[in-house]
């Protein structure tokens, strides 16, 4: 989820199976082999947050927050940005405190963190509160049901399919 100025890599791993649970127990200095990342929706020059002229909408589900927190640690877009972060348990949400601190320092960032068990039901009212939604460029990262629900909800609000990159 980050590389600091000294070249140290921080990795956010959700413990789902024995392998990911074991990875969480690794000690600093352990030699590991990493593969990925698997996606580039925030890496291309054209997708730099400061390259887009309109508002941004970022939607994260659970550990799908990692590409967004990595970017926010280094540069918060100067344009309006709404970050919707759906989590199973808000009290245990990854990076919740850090996200709140970033949002407090940057008034153009509207953080909407919400507990959710059903993205199809929970997303529409959140999307209805996004300023200038029709002009937003949308980036999303999370589980497949969340991404499907997001695409459906945005299409119902008239956004073209190519406005969303996941």
Question: Shape, please?
Answer: globular
Percent of residues in beta strands?
15-25%
Low-confidence stretches: none
- Spatial order of the strands in the main sheet? 5-4-3-6-7
Order of helices and strands: EEHEHEHEHEHE
| SS element count, helices | 5
Count every beta strand, where a strand is a DSSP E run of 2 or more residues. Answer: 7
Report how far apart the termini are.
17 Å
Major sheet characteristics: 5 strands, parallel
Q: Name the helicity range.
A: 25-40%
| Average pLDDT score | 84
Output the keywords.
single chain, 166 residues, alpha/beta, 5-stranded parallel β-sheet, two-stranded antiparallel sheet, 7 strands, globular
How would you characterize this protein structure?
- By secondary structure, the chain is α/β, with parallel strands linked by helices.
- The protein contains five helices and seven strands, in the order E-E-H-E-H-E-H-E-H-E-H-E.
- It has helices at 18-24, 66-74, 96-105, 119-127, 144-156, and strands at 2-3, 9-10, 56-61, 81-87, 109-115, 137-141, 164-165.
- The strands form two sheets. Strands 5-4-3-6-7 form a five-stranded parallel beta sheet, sandwiched between helices. A two-stranded antiparallel sheet has the order 1-2.
- Helix 4 crosses helix 5 (144-156).
- The chain starts with a strand and ends with a strand.
- The mean pLDDT is 84.
């Amino acid at each position: 989820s980050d590389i600091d100025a000294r070249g140290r890599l921080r990795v956010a791993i959700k413990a789902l199976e024995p392998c990911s649970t074991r990875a969480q127990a690794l000690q600093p200095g352990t030699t590991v082999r990493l593969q990925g990342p698997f996606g580039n929706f925030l890496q291309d020059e054209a997708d730099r947050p400061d390259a887009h002229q309109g508002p941004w909408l970022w939607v994260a589900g659970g550990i799908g927050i990692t590409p967004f927190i990595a970017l926010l640690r280094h540069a918060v877009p100067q344009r309006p940005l709404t970050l919707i972060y759906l989590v199973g348990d808000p009290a245990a949400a990854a990076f919740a405190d850090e996200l709140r601190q970033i949002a407090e320092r940057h008034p153009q960032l509207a953080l909407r963190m919400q507990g959710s068990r059903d993205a199809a039901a929970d997303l529409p009212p959140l999307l209805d509160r996004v300023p200038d939604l029709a002009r937003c460029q949308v980036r999303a990262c999370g589980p497949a049901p969340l991404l499907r629900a997001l695409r459906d909800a945005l299409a119902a609000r008239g956004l073209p399919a190519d406005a969303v990159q996941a």
